Amino acid sequence: MFKRLAAAVFAAPLIFTVLSVTPAHADPLLTISEITLSKALVTVSGLATEQVAVTVKGGYNSDDPADAKTTLHVFLNSQDGGMVDFMVSTELKRTAGTVKDGTWTGPLNVTSSQNSTYKAVAVAIGGYGRPFTGTPPESTQFDGPTLKVIGTHAPKLTALQVPKVVAVGKPYVIKWTVTDADTGKFYETQIRALTGIGKACSDGSAPFQPGLTSPTGTIARAYQAADAKLPHCFLLPNDPYDRAFLGYQVQRLGGVGAVPAKTSAKVGTNVPVTGSVGGPPGRCRIDLQRLYGATAWRSVNTARVRDSGRFTLTATPASQGKIPYRVLMPACNNFVASSSKPFTITGV
Prior knowledge:
single chain, mainly beta, Immunoglobulin-like, six-stranded mixed beta sheet, 1 helix, about 50% strand, signal
């Protein structure tokens, strides 16, 4: 599985994926006596998938007739810090014996992204895959065999947002592209891919939009303004998880509006400055800045944007005469920095 960034808040265009970790709790009903792999070394390049036959011997100690068709999956952890930190077999079906003393078999799909040495470390019941919600199944730990994967020309996914920064309330397009990570060139073939937004990307519980790339590896998707607040993703599917995954957070511009409660006040008097930011970018920092000299804006008060998008700041005129102010929201999450129009408060 690709190394995942667990943060729910994203800064700048961000590659992310959703991690479903190897189960850590033992399954009291599942015992494993043997795991074998048909190969110890696999070489795979580009968009190819190589299969390794997996055989598990063991038993599931249940008398429930519903468990007679119990399936298994095997976890393999990277031993040398590869880009893909663990692998999982496809759903293994029982092909011999009984559920209490049987043999389960099936393939492990190996892709070029898995350039590492892996070791079989655990077995769990059922199939592995989306959705990623809920508690992972209990597993039985096992000291299994290793598999060395030599992967080359793995796919690299990128996203190009048009326009580069989207004003709140405006539609946009993302051009998703697949290239060869080793050469930077296209594979010059159409590639089956999926795009998604929202829960499709965060936990796999919503549908994806399927499609084929162009021969130059690109899929262009048009999005509505309301989609911009959701996570986006682009992936190359494989069984039981993706051969490549790119997550993306749309870069947005939220307009800032600010109005002082008074346009003049005695020196040293506090003047509330209220306003709002489009989006809204709730809980982001918002700064009241004063102009010093011709170009130097310096923060003199700070607050947080409320969930409604509203904010309240305090200006305190320190001298007599007109004092220029503005409100700045620094870059926050997937919002770029933006500021209000300057305004003045006259100190008297």
